[in-house]
Design brief:
The complex is a heterodimer of chains A (272) and B (463). In chain A, α3 runs parallel beside α6, α3 runs antiparallel to α8 and α7 packs across α8. Chain A has a single domain, classed as MetI-like fold (Orthogonal Bundle), CATH 1.10.3720. In chain A, 78% of the residues lie in helices and 0% in strands. Chain A is built from eleven helices and no strands. By secondary structure, chain B is α+β, with helices and mostly antiparallel strands. Helices cover 25% and strands 27% of the residues of chain B. Chain B contains eleven helices and 20 strands. Chain B has a six-stranded mixed β-sheet, with helices on both faces. A five-stranded antiparallel β-sheet of chain B has the order 13-12-11-14-20. Classes of the chains: A mainly alpha (272), B alpha+beta (463). Chains A and B meet through α7, α8 and α11 of A and β6, α2 and α4 of B.
Chain lengths: 272, 463
């Protein structure tokens, strides 16, 4: 039996074309020599050169990276703590409510998250800028981190921590020396996920930003309103590249951890 | 009870004497449980338990799952705190002392080796927490590696070694800090039987070398009996009996212990003072010596003539061979070495003392000489180990002999256990060493047999 029948091949092609054709076109046109976005005039890296000389875009990129770095780091710390407590605390009253509340922002419309954060920042009189975007991004990306980390923690052998305590560790040392190194792959892939989420975000950032801080997605969005320039294509291509690398790395890390775990389990099963 | 005094009871701790500090009123226990109760919600895991454990002991907590043995161990390690009562280690109350501040180390059932650290670092882990110098740590780790024969694996990660080696790493890691007390939670549960037996002796050897007090939790009674100096049999949060393995096996305190440890037939009945009731049931045994194997072989050795053969002989062969003999010669008897006497324990035809236990209508009362005579009139249970019950085809000369039919045979290679059903439907297990090859075994399914045992073979338990 052939693995790809005529029907399967077609549906696969159509599906992937639907998903990736827009991006492929964008990437191709970023190497267009012409200034007109829709007319192909030969291969060129001209727009990448222009992009590098464009101070506005570079500033926005720098702001975006700063926001992504700080918010994902903060989200990783908070999300890991939340996951640890929810998995380890056992049954306490309101546990279901708490875990539900941690995961709720995953399905919350971004517009509502953005709006409510904006109202909060106005209410407490916080000047909008890089700080507010970092806080906003931390809020929604820590849910993703805690989902990733808690799924690792549920399969974590509790007796490893008990062994560390038994051998003279304080509870904090046990976490630092035993738990954290073992769940590190999940924590890192959580961090990468939060980083790419922050990099992409337009809606929440535009609600919580101020005049001093423009992230790259906001910049692109406002530039496109004045007409699509090939520079934007080049910029978008670079962003697609960064996000792709981030996602692939994250999945490779968690895949490798899963393989290592499976190998350990197999080794254990074989020898017992 | 005759078998209880196997080890010499001594109050001296001289090295040539048996190690029995629990017999010494002056010995100071290392661990004291004083009225310890542990509840998880409505469930009482440990119920008002008081028990001393002495230095250098190899103490086994034995019981089915859920009997509280693991809770006892976790309270010693400090992972659980007692609801009531106190636990003392070396005279110090352990209330409120966290696991990392106790002079106790534990070997976990899952071994709990740190997967991200090498074997060397796993063993050094506890030493590093103590803040010793790196030279002292290295020296101690090497010593532990030598003790557990793991030198070759020091640089490997836990997933790169076998289960038996991991077990030894776990042991080395928990012994590295030279704890006063080592707790072992089902340490051999994950090993296969052969490796488990080897490791049991290794554990005993290491315990002797290091002089550490070991407390082991297990549900495997064979393991507890092999390694422990004393065994505590637990049931529903209580210790039912604490004694040496020999006493636990030969003189169980209750039917629960008898039933839990090893294979046993329990016979409940009413004890009466023994009058020579047995005599009237005893028919004169037709075979003088209980020699069922020879009896069976005799039948095989005789020629088996049939009518046609006899007719042919009479018509054709008489002229050549002479007249047919009515009683033909037997084949030569098998060599004497192969004849094994049925293992009847010290046959006594008519015991004169002890109890007669009336246990079933239509069955002769069972005679037990190893019970106080003032139990007459009480309900008692006889706990009868299968290896103390002999099985034979002819009626043996023993204090107790019962007739029945073989229902089942469990062939274990070295021994066979016969399940014999008596006329009233009750089952008795008898065990026999397979001293001859299976093809020569003469007792088989559906055979009518006698099971017999001496008047001291069974432990008599009050109900």
């Amino acid at each position: 039996m052939r693995r790809f029948s005529w029907f399967n091949a077609t549906s696969l092609t159509l599906g992937f074309a639907f998903l990736y054709l827009p991006m492929v076109i964008l990437v191709i046109y970023s190497f267009n020599a012409s200034k007109l976005v829709t007319v192909w005039a030969g291969f060129s890296t001209r727009w990448y050169g222009e992009l590098i000389r464009n101070e506005e875009f570079l500033d926005a990129a720098w702001v975006t990276l700063k926001v992504a770095f700080f918010s994902s780091t903060l989200a990783t710390i908070l999300g890991t703590m939340a996951a640890y407590v929810l998995v380890r605390a056992g049954r306490f009253s309101g546990r279901t409510l708490f875990s539900g509340m941690i995961y709720a922002p995953l399905v919350m419309p971004e517009v509502i998250t953005g709006l409510s954060l904006l109202l909060l920042f106005i209410g407490i009189g916080l000047d909008r800028g890089v700080l507010t975007i970092v806080l906003a991004h931390t809020t929604f990306s820590m849910c993703y981190v805690s989902v990733v980390v808690s799924s690792r923690l549920t399969s974590f052998d509790r007796s490893l921590e008990e062994a560390a305590l038994d051998l003279g560790c304080s509870p904090f040392d046990a976490f630092r020396l035993v738990t954290l190194p073992i769940i590190a792959p999940a924590v890192i892939s959580g961090w990468l996920l939060a980083f790419t989420l922050s990099l992409d975000d337009l809606v929440i950032a535009s609600f919580t930003t101020g005049p001093s801080a423009t992230t790259l997605p906001i910049k692109i969005f406002s530039a496109v309103r004045l007409g699509v320039s090939p520079e934007i294509n080049a910029l978008s291509t670079i962003m697609i590249g960064i996000v792709t690398v981030g996602v692939i790395t994250a999945s490779l890390i968690s895949k490798r951890a899963a393989v290592a775990q499976a190998r350990d389990e197999q080794a254990a099963a074989r020898t017992t | 009870m005759a078998e209880t005094a196997q080890k010499p009871k001594t109050k001296s701790t001289a090295p040539d004497q048996a190690f029995e500090p629990w017999e010494d009123p002056n010995a100071k226990p290392l661990i004291e449980f004083r009225g310890v109760t542990k509840r998880f919600g409505d469930f009482t895991a440990i119920d008002d338990l008081t028990q001393d454990i002495y230095e250098r002991e190899f103490f086994a907590l034995l019981g089915p799952s859920g009997c509280g043995k693991t809770t006892m161990m976790r309270m010693l390690a400090g992972f659980d705190m007692p609801t009531a009562g106190e636990i003392l280690i070396a005279g110090q109350d352990m209330a409120g002392i966290p696991p990392n501040k106790r002079p106790v180390n534990m070997m976990f059932q899952s071994y709990a080796l740190f997967p991200h650290l090498s074997i060397w670092d796993n063993i050094a882990f506890g030493l590093k927490r103590e803040g010793r110098g790196s030279d002292a740590i290295a020296e101690r780790v090497e010593e532990m590696l030598r003790l557990t024969r793991l030198e070759r694996f020091a640089r490997r990660k836990p997933h790169q070694i076998s289960g038996g080696q991991r077990q030894r790493v776990a042991l080395a890691r928990s012994l590295a800090k030279a704890p006063k007390l080592l707790l072992l939670d089902e340490p051999l549960g994950a090993l296969d039987k052969k490796l488990r037996q080897d490791t049991q002796f290794e554990l005993m050897d290491i315990q002797e070398k290091t002089g550490t007090t070991f407390v082991i939790v297990t549900h495997d009674q064979e393991e507890a009996m092999t390694v422990a100096s004393r065994v505590a049999v637990m049931d529903e949060g209580r210790i039912v009996q604490v004694a040496t393995p020999a006493v636990i096996y030969e003189a169980p305190a209750t039917t629960y212990v008898a039933d839990f440890i090893g294979d046993v037939t329990l016979i409940a009945g009413e004890a009466k003072a023994h009058e020579s009731v047995v005599e009237e049931v005893v028919p004169e045994p037709e075979v003088a010596a209980p020699e069922p194997l020879v009896a069976a072989a005799e039948g095989e050795r005789a020629p088996q003539p049939n009518a046609l053969g006899e007719w042919l002989h009479d018509r054709l062969l008489t002229r050549v061979l002479g007249p047919r003999k009515a009683a033909p010669k037997l084949l030569p008897a098998p060599e004497v070495a192969a004849v094994v006497e049925a293992p009847v324990a010290a046959p006594k035809a008519a015991p004169t003392e002890g109890l007669a236990i009336h246990w079933a209508a239509g069955q002769p009362p069972l005679v037990a000489a190893n019970a106080p005579p003032d139990w007459a009139g009480k309900r008692v249970t006889l706990a009868l180990r299968p290896e103390k019950v002999a099985i034979s085809k002819a009626r043996p000369e023993a204090a107790n002999a019962l007739q029945g039919k073989v229902i089942d045979i469990a062939y274990l290679g070295n021994i066979s256990t016969y399940h014999v059903e008596l006329a009233n439907g009750s089952m008795i297990k008898a065990q026999m060493a397979n001293t001859r090859r299976i093809s020569r075994r003469d007792i088989t399914w559906e055979d009518d047999v006698w099971v017999s045992f001496s008047d001291t073979a069974a432990a008599v338990l009050e109900e």
